[in-house]
Amino acid sequence: MPPGGVEPDVLTIEALAAMAGAGAVSPRLRELASLRQGAPPGRVVIAVSTGSCGLARGAAQVAEALDRELRERKLGNEIQVRRTGCHGFCEIEPVVAIYPRGVIYHSVAPTDVPEIVSASLVGQGTVDRLLYTDPESGLKCLQERDIPFYRKQFRLLLGSNALIDPRHIEDYLAQGGYFALSSALFEMKPDEVIAEIKRSGLRSRTGTGFPTGRKWEECRNLPACDGVRRVVCSADEGGTGAYMARGLLEGNPHSIIEGMIIGAYAVGASLGHVHIRDEYSLAARNLCAALEQARAWGFLGKDIMGSGFSFDIGVARGRSAPVCDQPETRSRRSEARPGSLWLAGDKTRIQAVYNCPLVIDDLETWANVPAIVAKGGQWYSSIGTGSSKGTKIFALVGMTQNTGLVEVPMGLSLREIVHDIGGGTSNGSRVKAVHLGGPAGSFIPAGMMDIRVDFDELAARGASMGSTITVLDEHACMVDMARYFTRLLVKELCGKCSGCGEGLDKMLRILDDLAEGRGMAEDIALLEGLGKRINEASLCPRGANAANPVLSSIIHFPREYLAHAVERYCPAGVCKSLITLHVDLARCTGCQSCARDCPQEAITGRRLEPHHIDQRKCNKCRICLESCPVNAIVVS
User: Fold this and answer.
1) Nearest Cα to 52, choosing from 44, 42, 60, 62?
2) In a designed cystine with 423, which of 402, 433, 476, 485 is the match (CB 3.0 to 4.6 A)?
């Protein structure tokens, strides 16, 4: 019996195939999906955001409290609690949404549940204190579209997260899921599917944005070894703060599965693989459950939907994921040893059995495929810019007021994302720069933030797309940030080729010297030379871009490097070896806040009298800076 309790004779695979041939599969699947737990059309649904970010803030307890409250009030048959993936606005988790009204409550605690049920489920009112308040206007926001964080977004992929319980395939079917697959299998030839993807202008969502349709076409035209072709999905984001792939897999894994099946049909692949990070335990569980349900419903495995096409997907977990930008990457890396694929992540080469033509792409690219096939390449190409079509998902993190997953149409400027969606900095200070992309991304100064999210425009400025936008305020040290990302890359990259292997180690030692007061003026030119060599000598795009954090920070913030190298001073007051903390005696009121909070007991002074910092004890942790209410602690 398929998951959800629908009897097998209600919809057999043969019947499904017959309806697909008649073009009637999608309405029928939606009808079956509405039968879930006997749910009548228009049933009230209360969706709780239970992605990793929501769970960390107590979303599971909120969902349990809702179940319990509805059960006690005997409302379980009328109101359904749906545990969904991330709704995007991680800053206000746990989020509860009530449909069909669309009311959104934020920062919900289990103790709020009885009031929510009484006001918004038994009655038609709202709990005003749980509504989001627009910080600009001070007005309460009743629905998602009213919240500034969502206004400029185009949530083509993330929009379904709030409507789908990833543990139930019926929810995906109710949103038109697998309709695109049935259309591809029964109404289109493989070449026609590829033509539609090319018409859409879809490009790989990582690196330089290689055209997806061209990648598929090249794979289909390559001779297959023993008749085998494969498609591979990389769910590894390879950077601190990046969780776009995790958010999609946790919330809507069937969209990736459907996209991979369509891609496999187009290129003639019989096997698929998803590479997912070990840390993504919830995403892996949801993906594996979705794969089992897809097999049970006949969307995956042998003779899919009676079409004669067979395809299945396996899951590999670990620290590494395949490089997925250009086909040339695959062929160049495989030349070293036939039958092997280099994976970015560990310091050793990981052997793979992909001795065949394959398409490697990131998870976000695969998730776009069903919408393109269902609505047409021309529709998709109407979104975005001339060279970059569709939408792009970013993890908006750092010193921003609103953190979370944002999905924007290509062509939106970084300024609009940071200020209009992100709400500017969280502490009211000025934006100094944004770091765009993963660890190998580039720094873009505040003065250049009118640059658009567009593959070619970013490339012209020396940047790449990536999956994160990290906001840095005026208190960030660019030398320290470049050192942070370089250290991360040293750990993450395989280090096999001398470019990034030896070059990054040397680059990190120079940055350490600059941050610790041992640097020299000639170190800046040495860093630039190393960066160029790394770019030229590395064999994969990620290695070739590994010097981007250092090179872009030198280009846009040369004075900070000179201050570290020549003046032995950190203008941002971050590098401990280059700063001294002392008390401004004219400002100090003797409140003793700094003395109480100092972990080294380095601050002394009587109450209501100016205090002093013992430099022999001070470890420059900067806690006193945060605890002083009158800004009497000075960094020099």
Assistant:
1) 60
2) 402
Amino acid code (one letter) for 76 = G
* Domain assignment of residue 93, yes or no: yes
Cα separations (Å) of 548 from 13, 178, 539? 52, 40, 16
CA–CA gap between residue 158 and residue 252 (Å, rounded): 8
Neighbour tally for 222: CB within 10 Å: 16
Residue 507 resides in a domain: yes
| Contact residues for 337 (Cβ-Cβ < 8 A; gap 6+) | none
Residue 277 identity (one-letter amino acid): R
pLDDT of residue 27: 52
C-alpha–C-alpha distance, residues 181 and 495, integer Å: 40
Are residues 395 and 377 located together in one domain of the fold?
no
Helices of type H across 152-202? 169-174, 179-187, 190-200
Whether the Cβ atoms of residue 385 and residue 454 lie closer than 8 Å to each other: yes
Contacts of 213 (CB under 8 A, 6+ apart): 194, 195, 197, 198, 199, 200, 202
Q: How does residue 78 score in pLDDT terms, banded at 50, 70 and 90?
A: confident
Tokens of 489: 């890359």
545-590: pLDDT as tens digits: 889 999 999 999 999 999 999 988 899 988 988 888 889 999 999 9
Q: Is residue 25 part of a domain?
A: no
Q: Domain of 485: which CATH number?
A: 1.20.1440.230
How many separate domains does the chain show?
5
Taking 50 as the threshold, does the pLDDT of residue 338 lie above it?
Answer: no
Single residue among 458, 473, 488 that ends a domain in this structure: 473
User: What's the Cα-to-Cα distance from 474 to each of 136, 458, 571, 575, rounded to whole Å?
Assistant: 22, 23, 10, 14
Residue 224 falls inside a structural domain: yes
End-of-domain residue from the set 151, 185, 202: 151
Shared-domain flag, residues 309 and 445: no
Distance CA 177, CA 254 (A): 8
Number of H helices, E strands in the chain: 26, 21
% residues pLDDT > 90 (the chain): 55
User: Other CB atoms closer than 10 Å to residue 241's CB: what's the count?
Assistant: 17
User: Which pLDDT band, with edges at 50, 70 and 90, does 31 fall under?
Assistant: low
Contacts of 281 (CB under 8 A, 6+ apart): none
**Between residues 357 and 549, the one the model is more confident about:** 549
CA distance 445 to 536: 25
For residue range 237-255, list pLDDT tens digits in order. Answer: 655 566 788 889 999 999 9
Which run of H or E residues covers position 560?
helix 558-562
Question: Tell me: the pLDDT tens digits for 162-196?
Answer: 989 999 998 898 888 998 998 999 999 999 999 99
Check pLDDT > 60 for residue 344: no
pTM: 0.85
Range of the domain at 442: 391-473
Same domain, 563 and 584: no
Q: What are phi and psi of 392, to 5 degrees?
A: -135, 135
Other beta carbons within 10 Å of 140: 14
Contacts of 524-528 with CB under 8 Å at 24 or more apart are: 524/554, 524/558, 524/561, 524/562, 524/565, 527/551, 527/554, 528/554
Nearest to 294 by CA among 158, 172, 183: 172
* 344 plus 217 within the same structural domain: yes
Residue 234 has pLDDT above 90, yes or no: no
**CATH code, 144:** 3.40.30.10
Quick one: DSSP state of residue 416? Answer: I
